[in-house]
Design a protein that fits this description.
globular, single chain, mainly alpha
Length: 287
């Protein structure tokens, strides 16, 4: 989806509306089915109360702490740790392959930062270096907020709120200065988000591959917090359009009519019967 958005912003090959639709419609269809097919083919996927219940359960799952004896379906932390089990048996070559594959996100960032209007079309490597400085600054701010929440949120709520307020004011001030003096545009902001989010994901993959080193350095908690942040963003991306559609009753009714349509149901039953015949035939062949 991010690549399609980047193509929409910078693509020059197909500028006609018809040509653009013919080139990208199949890819947008694939993105939509990958993200929303579980909701579309769930008979209760657009019922408002079900969405509220799912959102509540998902918030509990994403917030619960993991650990020994906590199953993955009860805690995101346990699920996340389980997803990395293969890295423990990958060996040095496997870890090196994971790191090399993660570098593709940095190449992607390299290609985008030079398209920013704020760079004045400079091709110096300093532009790429400054983009990394911005990324490390963002990670430092996230670490500061995490430490502040852990140390001050319980006993010194006022201090923690002041720290968050100062960070927010500083961010807005820097953004205003960049817009006023460096002529930063709205498109630059969008491109920065599209460039930095995959870069953060690449750093996350490298940190997971180098887990023993990161744990000894004391940064594993920050890596987990960053990973949870990506999961929350993805959850919002999925829940927001589904909740918006569920707010209209006719969407759920239309989905119910579609799923329980006789022709549609007959097609599903036929495919299931054919699949059963294939399984029976394969089992007989094995016998």
């Amino acid at each position: 989806m991010i690549l399609l958005l980047v193509y929409q912003i910078f693509g020059q090959s197909y500028r006609g509306a018809v040509a653009y639709i013919l080139v990208t419609v199949s890819m947008w269809f694939m993105v939509g089915t990958w993200l929303f097919a579980p909701f579309l083919f769930n008979p209760s996927g657009f019922e408002w109360q079900k969405i509220v219940d799912d959102w509540t359960d998902w918030n509990k799952w994403i917030s619960n702490r993991g650990g020994i004896g906590v199953p993955p379906e009860k805690s995101w932390e346990s699920w996340w740790e389980e997803e990395q089990d293969h890295l423990r048996y990958s060996g040095k070559r496997g870890i090196l392959a994971e790191i090399i594959l993660a570098l593709r996100f940095f190449i992607y960032q390299y290609g985008l930062v030079y398209h920013l209007n704020i760079t004045k079309h400079h091709k110096s490597v300093l532009v790429y270096g400054i983009s990394w400085l911005v990324i490390f600054l963002i990670l430092f701010v996230m670490k500061t907020i995490s430490v502040g929440r852990r140390k001050f949120s319980a006993n010194f709520q006022l201090v923690f709120r002041i720290i968050k307020g100062l960070i927010f004011v500083t961010f807005v001030s820097i953004l205003a200065v960049m817009i006023a003096l460096a002529h930063m545009t709205l498109r630059d902001i969008v491109v920065c988000i599209l460039a930095f989010m995959p870069t953060g994901w690449g750093l996350l993959l490298i940190a997971q591959a180098c887990k023993p080193i990161v744990q000894r350095a004391g940064f594993w908690g920050s890596v987990r917090t960053l990973a949870r942040g990506y999961e929350i963003v993805m959850g919002l991306l999925l829940f927001t359009p589904v909740a918006f559609l569920a707010w209209f009753p006719f969407v759920s009714e239309f989905q119910t009519r579609m799923l329980f349509n006789q022709a549609f149901s007959r097609g599903l039953q036929i495919s299931r019967i054919l699949g059963g015949h294939r399984k029976d035939r394969s089992s007989r062949n094995k016998e």
